[in-house]
Amino acid sequence: MLAGGFDPALTERAKMEIDMGVAPLPPEELRERVSGARDPKSFDLSGAATVDEWTRALAAIGKKWGDFQTIVDFGCGCGRAIRHLRSKMDPAAQTLIGLDPDAEAIDWVVRNLDAIGYVLSDLPPASMPDNSADLIVSHSVFTHLPEDVQHAWLGELRRLLKPGGVLITTVHGDHAFRSYYNDVIRAGQPETAQVLMNAMNAEGFLYIKGRTAAEAALPEYYGAAFHKIKYVHETWSRYFNLLAWFPRFALNLQDTLVLQKSTT
Ligand SMILES: C[S@@+](CC[C@H](N)C(=O)[O-])C[C@H]1O[C@@H](n2cnc3c(N)ncnc32)[C@H](O)[C@@H]1O
Asked: How far is CA 196 from CA 30, 106, 193, 201, in A?
C-alpha cells in the first residue's frame, strides 16, 4: 500500500488555473453548503486543489485521466471539483457525471458546466446501470455519513463500477479527528472529548450527527464521520481492494483512499 503527504506546490498550480478563469462560479449559498465558506477564491482554489490531488493519486497507481472513459463525481455538490475536472477531459471520448442528493446543486451543475448530473435519493440506487463507471471520484462525502448509509453507498459504488474500476475518496482520519478533539477541549468539554476518543479507539469509526445552518438543505442525517485506517481495511474490504492511502492529503485535512473493484 502507498502513503504520502500534502504538497504545498499544488496550491501554486491551482492558483494559476484560477487566474485563467476556468468556469462560472455557483451562487454563494451553494458554495457555502459544500465548503462552509462564501469566499469565491477559496471555493475556486479548493476545487482546483482537489482535482490536483486526484491527478496525483491516480499517478501513484500508474494511471491518468485519459485512461478512464466514464468518470463519476459522487457527492459532487455544486461542482466545486467538476469546474476544474472538465479541462482534464476530452469531451469527445469521455463522459463526466455528477451525482448528489442536493437537487438545487445538481440543477446548477447541469445548467452551467458540461456535465451530466443525476439527483440521488438519500439512499441507493443511483439511476445508472451496473458496471457503467470506469472511475469514481468523491471528495468529503463519507466524512459526513452514518455507518449504515456509508455501507449502502459503498455497495452501490461497487455496483456502478466496472470490474477493475477505481474509486478515489476521502475520510476524516487521525489528523482530522485530532483537530476535532482539540476543538471540543477548547470548547470546555474535556470529558466529552475523552468519550469521543475512547469510542474512536474502540470502534475505529465515529459518527456525530449535526448540520450547520448552511447545511439545512442536506439530508437530515448529515453529520461528521471519522475513520481509522484499520477500520477501512477491515470493513471496506468487502467492497473494494485498498490500493493506496494518503494521510492528510485532501485539502491538508482529510485522508485520501484509492480503491479498486476486483476483476472477479
Ligand atoms: C462537504 S460536501 C462536498 C461536496 C463536493 N464533493 C465538494 O467537494 O464540493 C458533501 C456532499 O455530500 C452530499 N451528500 C450528502 N448526503 C449524501 C448521500 N447520502 N449520498 C451522496 N451524497 C451525499 C451533499 O449533498 C454534499 O454535496
From this structure: 31, 35, 5, 9
Pocket test for ligand 1, best of 38, 100, 113 (most atoms within 8 A of CB): 100
Q: How many CB atoms lie within 10 A of CB 58?
A: 20
- CA 10 to chain centroid, in Å, comes to 18
User: What CA dihedral angle connects 154, 30, 173 and 67, to 10 degrees?
Assistant: 60
pLDDT tens per residue across span 59-99: 999 999 999 999 999 999 999 999 999 989 999 999 999 99
- Is ligand 1 within 6 A of the CB of residue 113? no
Residue 13, C-beta contacts closer than 8 angstroms, at least 6 positions apart: 48, 52
Show Cβ contacts of residue 90 under 8 Å, excluding neighbours closer than 6 positions.
66
Name residues whose C-beta falls within 8 Å of residue 20's C-beta, 6 or more positions apart in sequence: none
Q: What percent of the chain has pLDDT over 70?
A: 92
Beta bridge partners of 245: 257
Nearest CA to ligand 1 atom 8: 139
Domain locations in the chain as residue ranges: 9-172+234-260
Give residue 4's pLDDT band: very low, low, confident or very high (50, 70, 90): very low
CATH superfamily to which 9-172+234-260 belongs: Vaccinia Virus protein VP39 (3.40.50.150)
